[in-house]
Give the backbone structure.
Amino acid sequence: MTFPVIGVVGGGQLARMMAPAATALGFELRVLAEGEDVSAVSAVPNAPVGDYKDLAALMEFSKGLDVMTFDHEHVPGDHLYALIEAGVNVQPGPDALVNAQDKLVMREAIDRLELPNPEWAAVDDVAGLVSFGDRIGWPVVLKTPRGGYDGKGVRIVGSAEEAAETADWFEAMSPLLAEAKVEFSRELSALVARTPDGASRAWPVVHTIQVDGVCDEVIAPAQNISLEVAAAAEEAALRIANELGVTGVMAVEMFETPGSGAGFLINELAMRPHNTGHWTQDGSVTSQFEQHLRAVLNLPLGATDVLGQVAVMKNFLGGDNQDLFSAFPAALAAEPAAKVHCYGKSVRPGRKIGHVNLVGASAGDVDSLRQRATVVANIIRDGRLPAAASGTTEETP
Ligand SMILES: Nc1ncnc2c1ncn2[C@@H]1O[C@H](COP(=O)(O)OP(=O)(O)OP(=O)(O)O)[C@@H](O)[C@H]1O
Ligand SMILES: [Mg+2]
């Protein structure tokens, strides 16, 4: 066999969704899984269980791989340097990845590139946080630089008095990142891919809607965005990828700030396929999962055009319904055009367990697409038709 073998560290839904792309291209995908029951295991035949914090486990997993890549950004940088030393092809490499692992490193890099950052500071303790807030104005946002996800590790601090309540965070980690609380009109994401040789491509900038710190909905492309802001946001993402030596897919999360500065501020970077790029599975010529595989293998990148005029992605989180499949007949009947993606995860409240994509032929469809995708996602989450819809069906003569 001369087809490449790609090893993904981490067996979450992102690794799982790389599998169909690998299968289509004839590549072999392997996954280093956190346990027997993680999302990717049922989709990838070769998925040994091992601890990504254990160098020996990573070394063992690296045998026979053409490239090692990631489902998450938590593999310690020192392990990655050791793997590279041992001849493993790690993409993205640790010097790039650290900007997605550590929000303080990332803020420094964005400043260095003279791209738009919110006001920020590294703060060592409550007193440091208070002096930052007093200087730039309350409320401020306090973040743990490492280990956060889905809004965990992010809190809003309203006043100097409230800052006293953050002492426990400084005991666990210091310094922390303090940021101005940005007054944004919406959140955006600029998704790009770059190869080790430096070829890159961008998808159109999308609008992302977060609920309780978790990505809930994505509208691609972002509707009614100013052409200048869209172009500048895309250019910023490509520049970050180039200057930081990013390989594979990268998402740049942004805040849209019309009428001030560049019209956007950078929130954070993710160096892997990202929730804000799931729409590409059904809404773009090349999905982010296929593009990630192409990119880390240094292959020519695929076209990133949108299929149709607009695509919508709606996540569903764990709710009351434990038996997701029981809701499928109703969900699929409600919307034959919906593409349902389920992660094979057990249902726990608030856990990301799947998403729905819908693609529209006209930009005017966006409201209807959002509503229809939400109906499907809610039926699966709740295990039943919404009260109004089922009422209508029953009452219709
Ligand atoms: N400086 C800020 N001003 C206003 N809102 C913010 C700020 N920073 C973060 N937020 C809000 O909190 C959300 C989560 O923050 P952030 O993306 O930094 O955390 P995370 O937990 O690493 O994210 P993810 O969910 O992408 O893993 C953002 O999407 C945004 O809605
Ligand atoms: Mg984020």
About this structure: Residues 253, 267-268 surround magnesium ion (ligand 2) (CB under 6 Å). Residues 390-397 have pLDDT under 50 and may be disordered.
